[in-house]
């Protein structure tokens, strides 16, 4: 018996492997599609991507003394957008001083024996000009007194006043200084809180003031990358109650 085979198209035979490859690729793509179950699994713990964290850094130093403690903290300036790519300082940075009285019955001789009443603290915020007085202070000299009215410019002006003094203690050699905050309420009590400051502690405070000065005035922002400055500095920061100078 003679069997006649159909003629073979050479071009079709040449493209058959390519067609088979395309079919295999399509089959794999179909099998790799994310089903609703897989999607739910990919977005459930621990596989879901964590939300980006906003960096918040807090720092400060505190002097713990026999009758009170005083903490030195920094509040950064805040910025506001004035155009598509322009920003202006909305509020200058400050150094915040927090005074806390010692709690009754905790006047031990060691720092670990003392407890301080930070719930009844008194605060005052110092501008760069006021901080400059500390940098200009010479050994044995007092810093000019600093007066604040937190409600200045409002109908409550004069109801609360604050006075900060920094002066050497008499007959101390080498000079030991005393930093004192007096808060006077027009229809309330007068609160006085203070701490002695040694020459070494004063040197540390001055060094910190020197370092933060370009930051609280905003001059450092001129030399920083735009994203670094305005993406970070424009974030809301906690500030004390009342308008400057607190």
UniProtKB/TrEMBL annotation:
Keyword Transit peptide: yes
Keywords tagged on the record: Transit peptide
Molecular function terms, GO-annotated: single-stranded DNA binding
Domain of life: Eukaryota
Similarity field: Belongs to the Whirly family.
Cell inner membrane as UniProt keyword: no
Name of this chain's protein: Uncharacterized protein
């Amino acid at each position: 018996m003679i069997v006649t085979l159909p003629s073979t198209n050479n071009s079709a035979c040449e493209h058959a492997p390519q067609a088979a490859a395309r079919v295999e690729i399509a089959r794999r793509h179909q099998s790799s599609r994310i089903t609703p179950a897989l999607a739910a699994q990919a977005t459930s713990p621990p596989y879901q991507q964590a939300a980006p964290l906003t960096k918040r850094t807090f720092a400060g130093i505190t002097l713990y003394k026999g009758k009170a403690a005083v903490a030195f903290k920094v509040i950064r300036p805040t910025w506001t957008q004035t155009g598509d790519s322009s920003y202006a300082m909305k509020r200058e940075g400050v150094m915040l001083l927090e005074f806390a009285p010692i709690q009754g019955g905790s006047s031990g001789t060691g720092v670990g024996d003392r407890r301080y009443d930070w719930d009844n603290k008194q605060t005052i915020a110092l501008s760069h000009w006021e901080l400059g007085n500390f940098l200009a202070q010479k050994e044995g000299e007092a810093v000019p007194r600093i007066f604040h009215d937190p409600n200045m410019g409002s109908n409550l002006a004069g109801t609360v006043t604050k006075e900060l003094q920094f002066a050497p203690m008499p007959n101390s050699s080498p000079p030991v200084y005393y930093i004192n905050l007096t808060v006077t309420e027009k229809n309330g009590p007068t609160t006085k809180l203070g701490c002695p400051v040694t020459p070494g502690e004063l040197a540390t405070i001055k060094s910190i003031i020197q370092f933060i000065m370009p930051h609280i005035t905003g001059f450092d922002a001129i030399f920083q990358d735009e994203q670094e400055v305005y993406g970070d500095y424009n974030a809301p920061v906690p500030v004390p109650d009342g308008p400057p100078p607190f």
